[in-house]
Amino acid sequence: MSRLIFTNLGIDLLWDKNKALSKLFPARIPSSEHLLLTQQNLGLFFSKVEDTFIGHTGVDETYLDFVNSFFKISNSTHFLKANPFDSANWIEEVKKLELSHKNIRNIFGAGFSVLEKDICELLNINFPKQHDTDLYSKLNDKTFLLEIHNDLPVLFPDSKIVANSQLKNYFKNYDFTNVSCLLKFPQSSGGAGQIRLKQTKDLKILDFIERQPYETEFNWLAQQVIPSSEEYTSFCYTDGLLDEYQHLVVKYDKNGYSYFHSTATEEQKCETLDKLASKVSEILRKQGYLGYFGFDTIWNDKGQCYIVDLNVRLCKGHLIQNAAEFFSVEDYVCKRIRIDGKPIINFYDFWNHLQKLIPEIHNRVFPIEVSGLKSINQSQNCQLELTFICPLMYINSAWYNQLDKAIEATLNK
Fold first, then answer.
1. 94-103, 142-151, 219-228 — most confident range
2. What are the structural domains, with CATH classification, of the chain?
3. pLDDT of 323-360, one tens digit each?
4. Of 181, 259, 268, 361, which has the maximum CB count within 10 A?
């Protein structure tokens, strides 16, 4: 079976030792020299029919062993550098550059990562217009949605812009009795730049934030958390003439980490999301942006719709769509599993062990993204994230539960 795998090999050792950092800062969109260091181990793997491999990385021989063992490639391997320097010299070279925020974004892109840029090239995803980094930075700032929400046909949670130096003062008398707060880093990507504050004792994280060496003052978005009965994510595209929208239902497991996506079918809600997508598209065009964007919405128990996040970039969901089309998988769901366990040194062995537990996995699952792979000299536990698409014909909760248990057993064997 063909395989399409996007993988993030994780961040550098310094940051990996403190899990709180993963809640604070995005690894995919660097916004300072300090964050830039988290890009050093990004890697992309792309394989089609076992005879083609294109990848880029700066990691050690363990990575090469992983590639060769899983794909069994002999003479058709090509390496493209994700970064301008080898990992060993990365930190020293970055220091020499003395990069500013803007220069970093010029090199690595604002709004989507190097990894995603290269995937775009591999899958021939073209952007109708080049945008400058200042525009990307403005539209992807979490406060931008607050600026435009009054023009949208849905609700927006109560939100406030809070300067980094004023966080403690803002939360000094915050009442967590009936509501929790989501603190969003301005240029964060996905959940990596969000901190969920549910109770007063959670405010201890503010001490950690205060100790970080920021170059300049910046603003966070403090957003009220709306209890939801249903959650949706939408992946959209506009080129000024044609708009395309896809809306997916998102269902999380009890720990909130693992999820799966399935195509939205409820007509009334799809109409609401179409209207929202059309209005967002109109606003972005007026700002001078053409291309990919995505947003997240929730419905509360009263049937009210809230937009809670907007990403003006190529989202992971767009890549999954292209992956599904690439492998001619028309009806599918996407599922992400996150489990703490031992580091995976060799994905080929990991996958073989899963096949012993669930023999049919090879014909049912297309792995899309895997993270949690670690160098052999790292012995501490890590969090594995496995994202895959599965044809709709195989969807049932019993099979998913079986897969979750098999992965957990494999990681802790």
1. 142-151
2. 4-125+315-411 (no CATH), 133-155+227-311 (3.30.470.20), 159-224 (3.30.1490)
3. 566 556 666 666 666 666 665 545 556 667 777 887 77
4. 181
